[in-house]
Amino acid sequence: MINMLYQIIRTARPRQWLKNFSLFAAALFSGRLLMESVLLSSLDAFIAFCAISSGAYFINDIIDAPKDRQHPIKKNRPIASGKLPEWVAWIVALALIAWAIFFSTSNIGSYFTLILVVYILMQISYSLYFRNVIIMDSLVVASGFVLRVLAGGLASNTSISAWLALTTIGISLLLAFGKRRSEKTIVAKFSGDTDSATRKTLRHYPDNLLDSMISMAATYTIITYSLFTFQASPQYVSNELLTILPSILRSPKWMMLTIPLVIYGVARYLYIIYEKGEGESPERVLLSDKPLLFTVVLWGVLAMAITYLIPGGAE
């Protein structure tokens, strides 16, 4: 029984829940995250998305089990390895999805619930079809991040900045194409080539195409985020700061201070993809690569400090 529970938790992929922190983005940069009602709504949205995304992983692993058994790493997944029976996986998957939709309808709202339904349908269509269509597979993966940010705005009743949405698109494309690049590296390393049944699209992805898309996404992310910082910076400085700051610093674009961290973070991720041959699992990379983890944490602390400790709020 204990081993069965362990395999269920493994298949639910708690590490992947890190992606769901993007649900807090809209409320954070609007300066409303620390409002009790907004924070509670965002937490409810986070819980619902964790449940439904885990349900999607169960369905994905059930569908992919035959191919996963031929993959050098994925063959160890609970369902592919036979440690978790498929009928148990189906029960858990349907229970998580049903609970997430019920919880959302009861505690958050109909628009957010609609996003959950769209998300799970998109994940199922990805597992059944889009994962085998070159470029579209990466675009569908990237869309999941965009849906999370949109869902966070709907849950907290917060308007989403156009530049925040564009930045999210850039980051999601970078992660999606970086994931494909790393998958090719891993499969080639273990099997000697990428002409494998593990993922049909890999053999159709030229390295040059992936490299170009990754470069484009990285540039796009840095540019859109830099423009976003102009909009997200506090418009006013507290009276306490006004007394100690020189006049030229009384109304600067404070969020611009975070741009170097984003540039370094993007560059570090590219280093991980190309030099270390990792990146197939972005959340694992984030937790295992200390420089990248430190950069993300520092960025979060600095963004929170600028947004909430320099009164006037972000618009």
TrEMBL record:
CDD domains: PT_UbiA_2. Keywords: Membrane, Transmembrane, Transmembrane helix. It is found in: Membrane. Pfam families: UbiA. It is a multi-pass membrane protein. GO terms for cellular component: membrane. InterPro entries: UbiA_prenyltransferase (IPR000537), UbiA_sf (IPR044878). The chain crosses the membrane at residues 45-63, 108-126, 133-154, 160-177, 209-228, 254-271, 292-310. The keyword Mitochondrion does not apply. The keyword Transmembrane applies. GO terms for molecular function: transferase activity, transferring alkyl or aryl (other than methyl) groups. NCBIfam families: PRK12324.1-4 (NF008978). This is Phosphoribose diphosphate--decaprenyl-phosphate phosphoribosyltransferase. The lineage of its organism: Bacteria, Katanobacteria.
